[in-house]
Amino acid sequence: MEIDDLEAVHEIETASFPNTSWNMESFLKELTVNQFAHYFVMEENDEIVGYCGLWMVIDQSQITTIAIAKHARGNGLGNALLKYVKEYAAEQSDFLSLEVSVDNEPAMKLYEKEDFKYGGVRKDYYGPGKDAHVMWVKLK
C-alpha cells in the first residue's frame, strides 16, 4: 500500500465498517510512522478492491484491518488476500492473530477455513455491547 492508495482504501474501510472505520490520518500514520506495520492492497482491473494491514513484532503478527469492497465479495478475493498475508507473516512470525466482530459470520467462516482458532472474547472491543472474538493461527 502506498499513500496514493489511501483514498480508495478509506472508501472500502468506511463502507465495510461504518461505525468503527479508521480515519485517513490513522492509515497515514501506519504507512509513515509505525515501523512494525505492513499494508497491502489487492487490485483487480487496476482498481483497488481490498486491503489488509499487518503488524509484525518479533515472532508474532496481528492483522489490524482487512476488507474487500462490497461489489467484489464472494469471488474468493478475501481468501486469496488472507492466504497471501499468512504466507508473508510466516516469514518472520510463529503466530498470526486478529479480532473480528462476534456478529461477522462471513469473516469468521473465512478465518476458520484458514485454520484460525478462537482464543477468547474482547468485551466492548468495537464499542459498548459490541464484542470481538480473538482468533489466531499457528504459522510454524
What does this structure look like?
With 140 residues, the protein is an alpha+beta fold. The chain has one domain (3-138): 3-Layer(aba) Sandwich (Aminopeptidase), CATH 3.40.630. The protein has helices at residues 6-16, 24-32, 77-90, 105-113; strands at 37-44, 47-57, 60-68, 95-101, 117-122, 132-138. It has a 6-stranded mixed beta sheet with strand order 1-2-3-4-6-5, with helices on both faces. Helix 3 (77-90) links the parallel strand 3 and strand 4. 26% of the residues are buried. This is [Ribosomal protein bS18]-alanine N-acetyltransferase. Acetylates the N-terminal alanine of ribosomal protein bS18. Its EC number is 2.3.1.266.
Topology of this protein?
Blueprint: H1 6-16, H2 24-32, E1 37-44, E2 47-57, E3 60-68, H3 77-90, E4 95-101, H4 105-113, E5 117-122, E6 132-138
Parallel strand pairs: 3-4
Antiparallel strand pairs: 1-2, 2-3, 4-6, 5-6
Largest sheet: 6 strands, mixed
H and E order? HHEEEHEHEE
Q: How confident overall, as mean pLDDT?
A: 97
Q: Which percent range describes the beta-strand content? A: 25-35%
The CATH architecture can be given as 3-Layer(aba) Sandwich
Q: Are there runs of 5+ residues with pLDDT below 50, and where? A: none
CATH fold-type name = Aminopeptidase
Radius of gyration: 14 Å
| Tally of alpha and pi helices | 4
The span between the termini is: 26 Å
Tally of individual domains? 1
Helix share bin: 25-40%
CATH class bucket: Alpha Beta
Could you give the count of β-strands?
A: 6
Widest sheet: strand ordering: 1-2-3-4-6-5
CA-based shape: globular
Instruction: Specify the structural class.
Output: alpha+beta
CATH superfamily: Gcn5-related N-acetyltransferase (GNAT)
